[in-house]
Write a structure and sequence with these properties.
The structure holds 2 protein chains of 2 kinds. Chain A is an all-alpha fold. Chain A has one domain. Chain A contains 9 helices and no strands. Chain A is elongated, with a radius of gyration of 21 Å. The chains are: A mainly alpha, B alpha/beta.
Chain lengths: 253, 330
């Protein structure tokens, strides 16, 4: 019973936080410095790991697809498989998971320590709502940066697949053929679909992480517990949301 | 300063992302979401088979557009084709659904049409032709297979028999077993003959085995050849003569082809006939000679007198003879 209340409490406080921070949206231009700082942290510093991971995700996708497709002799369609999977599913999900692991955990840790060390209380006392100063710039930065990360993940993953397709003996598809098939069967709406998903996931991850950080209670030990909870909840939400968002977006093709 | 650098990096990063999204969009969709380029044509088919939205439209193998929409229109299926604006499709061009692969990739193929025909305009309907799809071909194959099976079955019955009437093989078997002795004897005879041939016995054997005989045969053949050549020359000459005759040259030619000669001959023959008639009737000297006995008798009498005179000459001796000769001389 207590856990159910905790879950409902989590949902409710997250929604409230969202509404509250959006109500301060007009103050964003005045906080542009914070906004850019968060953009830097969320987008720029996350780029290398996104690039590396998506390269290998694309590679292994091509490798596995080539292995299973050689049973039917349809290796030439590997480009469409890698293209569609990266654009529609793996790109956005990968970006969201990396965001949860690298950015979300950092946000929760920062906000939880601020909460634990009563910096948040000090802000509230000074009539500076944490939703305005701490949450809004992060959400805005996420909205701006995540599509960029997602498109880079897609493209790098495609190239990784192309390289594996060329240099793996059982596939041996030239990059021209690979990209011709990819272009033929992957449409921009698939990429757009992925970008929408990535945007949504990133937004939810950052919002949840902010909320869990701000709702930390107790001593410094709680900071670690909050970070763990934030990452776990983020991952669960990403994969659950993924299914339903895909279902919703599918008929819109 | 550090802050500005940070802002710059973020700005650059964001612009890079937007640029990448734009490039992807242009590459994958060719900018189709915002504006529809080109004009549309309607192609009605009995069945669109596996054709779907976004499939290619090709003219002579070149991609000239895409299937924009597929829909049912009354008793037929319609595909709306979006064609590039620079491509003109003649109004007698025909659209077909072409199967590009076995795993369900189709495209609409449009032929070139005749050069002088007017081009189709936006919203026009293009002529279509139904092509058999894989299922239809497979069904036909099935029917064909059944027929083949029937034919093979009847052949098999004919060969092996159906229990009541004996089959071909049984008949052959019976034939061979019934006539085994005869066949063996015949084979033995044939073998004897071939042995003899091999050993050079008999005319044929000698011919086969004796080189001299062979040489003779060759010589004979050569002679025949020579004779034939001569015969050829002779025939050629004869031909030349015949040609001359035909041309009316020479006596024979004149004889055959000249009317005057013929008439002369006729006249001569008539004369001869007249003469012989007269002779037969005993007219004239010759006739009398031939037909009158008196003349013969006269002649006999004269001959007798001459005989006697000659006898008398014998008695007078050679002097008289010399005197006669001398009298004759002087």
């Amino acid at each position: 019973m207590k856990q159910i209340t905790a879950i409902l409490d989590g949902f409710g406080s997250t929604w409230l936080l969202l509404v509250r921070s959006l109500s301060y949206a007009g103050t964003l231009p005045r906080q542009y410095r914070r906004f850019f700082e968060q953009c830097y942290l969320i987008g720029y510093t996350t780029l290398p790991i996104v690039a590396i991971l998506s390269f290998f995700i694309g590679s292994v996708l091509a490798l596995q697809a080539g292995y299973s497709m050689q049973n039917f002799g349809t290796q030439q369609f590997i480009g469409s498989l890698v293209g569609l999977s990266m654009a529609r599913e793996l790109g956005p999900v990968m970006v969201a998971i990396l965001l949860a692991g690298r950015v979300g955990s950092a946000i929760t840790a920062e906000l939880a320590s601020m909460k634990v060390y009563q910096e948040i209380d000090a802000l509230v006392t000074m009539n500076i709502p944490p939703a305005r100063m701490l949450v809004l710039p992060r959400l805005a930065a996420t909205l701006v940066m995540v599509p960029v990360l997602a498109i880079i993940a897609d493209l790098v993953g495609w190239f990784g697949g192309a390289i594996v397709a060329k240099y793996t003996a059982m596939i041996s598809i030239e990059p021209e053929a690979y990209f011709a098939v990819l272009r033929r069967y992957t449409h921009f709406k698939d990429v757009l679909n992925g970008l929408i998903k990535a945007e949504l996931f990133g937004f939810v991850v950052v919002l949840v992480c902010c909320n869990i950080g701000l709702n930390t209670r107790g001593g410094p030990r709680e900071i670690g517990a909050s970070v763990t909870r934030a990452v776990v909840v983020s991952l669960i939400l990403i994969l659950v949301l993924d299914y339903f968002v895909t279902q919703v977006l599918m008929p819109l093709q | 300063m550090n802050n500005l650098q940070q802002t710059t990096r973020v700005g650059l990063f964001f612009i890079l992302g937007i640029a990448l999204i734009w490039v992807t969009f242009q590459t994958l969709s060719g900018g189709k979401i915002f504006r529809e380029k080109g004009y549309s044509l309607i192609a009605g088919f009995e069945s669109l088979k596996e054709l779907k939205k976004g499939d290619e439209v090709r003219m002579a193998g070149v991609v000239i557009g895409a299937v924009e929409e597929t829909r049912l229109a009354g008793r037929r299926a319609e595909a709306v084709l979006r064609i590039h604006p620079e491509v003109q499709i003649k109004n007698d061009a025909t659209a077909t659904i072409v199967m590009a692969g076995l795993i369900g990739t189709n495209y609409i193929g449009i032929d070139l049409g005749t050069p002088g025909a007017p081009a189709l305009r936006d919203g026009a309907e293009i002529r279509t032709k139904a092509t058999p799809d894989l299922t239809a071909i497979m069904t036909q194959m099935g029917v064909l297979g059944k027929k083949l099976e029937g034919a093979l079955g009847s052949i098999s019955t004919a060969v092996t028999g159906d229990g009541k009437t004996p089959g071909l093989f049984q008949k052959l078997d019976k034939l061979v077993s019934d006539n085994g002795e005869n066949v063996n004897a015949t084979v033995a005879n044939i073998r004897q003959v071939s042995d003899k041939l091999n050993k050079g016995e008999g005319t044929l054997g000698k011919l086969l085995n004796d080189p001299k005989l062979h040489d003779d045969l060759v010589a004979t053949v050569n002679e025949i050849k020579g004779t034939a050549a001569e015969a050829k020359t002779f025939v050629a000459n004869a031909q030349a003569i015949v040609d001359q005759v035909k041309a009316g040259k020479g006596t024979l030619g004149a004889l055959v082809y000249d009317d005057t000669t013929g008439n002369d001959i006729k006249a001569s023959v008539k004369n001869i006939r007249d003469i012989s008639d007269k002779i037969t009737r005993g007219e004239g000297t010759l006739g009398k000679l031939i037909n009158d006995d008196s003349t013969l008798r006269d002649a006999q009498a004269i001959m007798k007198k001459a005989d006697r005179a000659l006898d008398g000459l014998d008695d007078t001796g050679p002097i008289t003879a010399v005197g006669v000769v001398a009298r004759g001389l002087f």
